[in-house]
Amino acid sequence: MKHFVGKYSERMGKRIDEIPEEVMAALVAYSWPGNIRELQNCVERSVIMTCGNVLHDPLQGIAPVAIGDNQEPRTLAEAEREHIHRTLEKTNGLVAGPNGAAARLGVKRSTLYFRMRKLGISRSNKKACSATGSDPR
Question: What does the buried/exposed string (b/e) look like for 77-94 if buried means 16 or more CB atoms within 10 Å of the residue's CB?
């Protein structure tokens, strides 16, 4: 945390000498769903918004991520399946071409077809399948 504050304050020509304890406690308690890059971006925004030498609270306006007791951690395959489904829905099942799902996902058409086969996704069942990948047929 202090590393990023130093890095971004130097880059922006600011001098931030203090990180309030309550700000540090909030940063430590936050779940950081975007991992280290989210922390970096948050600290950078905070340094930009800071006037003076005391760090502005970077979590102001960020809603906490709530994880219910009944939610189990999702697997990477489930998250990927859900993301591909949503993208296919947005493209009305179109995989190839400049407006297709492959282009939106930043992968080659053949790579997307491979991932779809591996995850049990077909264009015909893109809307019928749930995020868990069960095939209603």
Answer: eeebbbebbebbeebeeb
Q: What are the residue ranges spanned by the domains of the chain?
A: 2-49, 76-125
pLDDT over 60 (residue 65):
no
Per-residue pLDDT band for 71 (boundaries 50, 70, 90) equals: low
User: For the chain, what is the mean pLDDT?
Assistant: 77
CATH architecture designation of domain 2-49: Orthogonal Bundle (1.10)
Minimal CA–CA distance to 18: which of 41, 50, 64, 49?
50
Which pLDDT score is estimated for 110?
92
Q: Which long-range contacts (CB under 8 A, 24 or more apart) does 129-137 make?
A: 129/81, 129/85, 131/78, 131/81, 131/82, 131/85, 132/78, 132/81, 133/77, 133/78, 133/81
The arithmetic mean of pLDDT across residues 107-119, rounded, is 90
